[in-house]
Amino acid sequence: MTQADESQANRLLKYSDDARLLIINADDFGRSHASNEATFRALKAGVVSSTTLMVPCPWALHAMQLLSEHPDIAFGVHLTVVCDVPHYRCRPLTSRDKVPSLVDESGFFYATERIPEWLAQLKLGELEVEFRAQIEAVLAASLRSTHLDWHCLYNGGRADIFEMTVKLAKEYGLAMRVFDPAAGEGLRRQGLPSNDHNVLDSYSLDIAEKSALYARALRELPQGLSEWAVHPALDTPEMQAIEPQSWRVRVTDFDFLISSQAHEIIEQEGIVLLSYKPLQKAWQERKPGSETSR
Q1: In 3D, which of 5, 35, 54, 23 has the Cα closest to residue 200?
Q2: Rounded to whole angstroms, how far apart are CA atoms 16 and 270?
Q3: How far apart, in whole angstroms, are the C-alpha atoms of residue 246 and residue 242?
Q4: Burial code of 8-28, b = ≥16 C-beta within 10 A, e = fewer?
Q5: What span, in angstroms and rounded, lies between the C-alpha atoms of 231 and 52?
Q6: Span 48-76, pLDDT tens digits
Q7: For 256, what's the count of Cα atoms within 13 Å in the CB-facing half-sphere?
């Protein structure tokens, strides 16, 4: 990536080239009560600056009520069409007969280990119907989101899914959350801000060293726009039952995100915490079809 590319998001968002911008997005709002409570606390008292809502999940209504009561919270729609744990599953909002390629033999979304099989037979038109249903459910609740992204589908999983989701983002006046700079290349050519660096996923970090790794990542944060995908949750029997092998990932996330250490390092380093609101504004202002000079 050239220096011009590295500072493009800063320029589009009206920050200096040397500014260190960071979005800390709490994924999976609505997935569980433990996730909802931890995410809400981390947004209000911690360093989390954005979240993403899983509309088909059992605790989505609770999350939506919190968002309704706190309209200052910036959130995106975490488009959910994959089940990531075997015994805690959800279904499409759309009736099964309209989106048969989205569900497995039991009528639920496909499990993560079957994603390649699912993508091979998935009908794009049916997926768009369900994506729209999830976006419209948020609008029907009188909520206004800032961006779109995918749950357990890295950059959509297929090029045509990526392009279809970008089309929906533009139609609904939202930004797109892109996980690596290469995938966002076409967006940047259109003058649409996206991450300058690979998104840090909290599931990739060692649990025992989590606090130290986060602290170092903040101190070494590069210039430009970075993002962390974090997954805070409380240590509850519910959380341990949903993720018996990995619940500590979420609890250790929460512990750091509400810590005084996190606040102090961000202040000391002069890091600018952002939500997707300024990105959304830049997306809305960009004329369709126009491209920036490179």
Answers
A1: 23
A2: 13
A3: 9
A4: bbbebbebeeebbbbbbbbbb
A5: 10
A6: 999 999 999 999 999 999 999 999 999 99
A7: 26
Pairwise CA distance, residues 80 & 63, whole Å = 15
User: Residue 142's CB: how many other CB atoms inside 10 A?
Assistant: 10
Sign of the Cα torsion 196, 176, 178, 40 reads positive
- Token pair of 41 as six digits: 């606390």
Alpha-carbon gap, residue 12 to 34, rounded angstroms: 36
Domains within the chain, CATH numbers bracketed: 3-285 (3.20.20.370)
Query: What ranges make up the beta strands (E) of the chain?
Result: 20-29, 50-53, 75-79, 82-83, 110-111, 147-150, 175-176, 200-201, 224-230, 272-273
Amino acid symbol at 269:
E
Task: For residue 230, list its beta bridge partners.
Answer: 26
Packing angle of the helix pair 159-172, 124-140 (nearest 10 deg): 30
Return the closest-CA partner of residue 14 out of 223, 274, 278.
278
Distance CA(79)–CA(81), nearest Å, equals 7
Q: Whole-model pTM above 0.90?
A: yes
Q: How confident is the model at residue 188 (pLDDT cuts 50, 70, 90)?
A: confident
Residue keyed to tokens 């002069």: 270
